[in-house]
Amino acid sequence: MNSIYQNIIAAKAKNKKLLAVLIDPDKMILANVSGFISKVNQSIATHIFVGGSDVNEGLTETLVLEIKKHATLPVILFPGDVTQITDKADGILFLSLISGRNPDYLIGKHVEAISKLRDSNLEVISTGYLLIQNGKQTSVERVSQTKPIERDQVQQIVDTAKAGELLGMKLIYLEAGSGATHAIEPYIISEVKQELSIPLIVGGGIRTKTEIELAYKAGANLIVIGTAFETDETFFDHLRS
Questions:
Q1: Single pTM value for the model
Q2: Cβ distance 95 to 125 under 8 Å?
C-alpha cells in the first residue's frame, strides 16, 4: 500500500476532497461490519478511521481484523489511549492534544506507545489535535481532563494550529467532539486553513451533505464523519461514489 500520508499530500496538491468514516469499537456490532463496510466501499469515502475516547481493551484489534476482511480503503487508528493500538491496521494518527495542557496527552501517552510501535509496520502520522467547544462536554474532554478552546477564541485556535505545524506535526485536526451539537463553523476552518501549509482535517458534528460541502469550501482537506453514520445509515445514500 502506498504511503497514507503521501496520498493525503498528493490529494491536497490536486485539491481532491477526502472523507473518512470513523468507527467506534464500542458502538459497532461485529455482525454488522460486513454490511456497513460494503456501504462505505460504495460511497465517496477515502479512509476508515477506527477508535474512540474510551474503548475496552481488545475491542479495537478485533474490529480492525473484521473491517480488513471487507474494506478496500486504508484503515487508520484514531486512538484515545495506548490500549487501542494494534498493528493489524494500516496506519495510526499519532495524536497530540495541543488544545489542552494535560502532559499525558501532549507527550506522556506517546512515550507509553513506543513499545507497541517500535516493531510495528503501522504508518505513524504525527497529528496536532485541537478540541473546539461545541456546547456540551465531550468524551474527549472527560477522558483527557482538558478544556476545549472556545469557539469565539478564533485567534487562539489559529495560533495553536500553527504552533502544531511549526512543532513538526504532519496534520492538523480540528475536532468538535463525538456527538457535537453543531459542526465547526466554516469561518473558523477558513481562518486556520489560511495559516497552514499542511493538510487540515475537520470532524465532529457534521451530519448533512451541506455541512460537508461548507467544510470543504472553507478549506478542509479531509472530513471525518462518525455520528451521522451511527444514527442513520441512509446517510450513505447521499455519499455515493
A1: 0.96
A2: no
Q: What is the largest CA-CA distance in the chain?
A: 45
Mean pLDDT computed over 171-195: 94
Q: Tell me the pLDDT of the chain averaged across its residues.
A: 94
Q: Distance (Å, rounded) from C-alpha 8 to C-alpha 11? A: 5
pLDDT at residue 182, rounded to an integer? 87
Number of domains in the chain: 1
CB neighbour list of residue 181: distance below 8 Å, 6 or more residues apart = 134, 135, 136, 205
Residue span of the structural domain in which 13 resides: 4-239
N-term to C-term CA, the chain? 21
- Residue 112 has which C-alpha cell? 507509553
Residue type, 228: A
Phi, psi dihedrals of residue 172, rounded to the nearest 5°: -120, 135
Report the DSSP pairing between strands 47-50 and 171-175: unpaired
Q: Is 131 exposed, middle or buried (0-12, 13-18, 19+ CB in 10 A)?
A: buried
Handedness of CA 139, 63, 20, 4 (dihedral sign): positive
Q: Which CATH number do you get for residue 194?
A: 3.20.20.390
Radius of gyration of the chain (CA): 16
3-class SS of residue 108: helix
Q: How long a stretch of residues is the chain?
A: 241
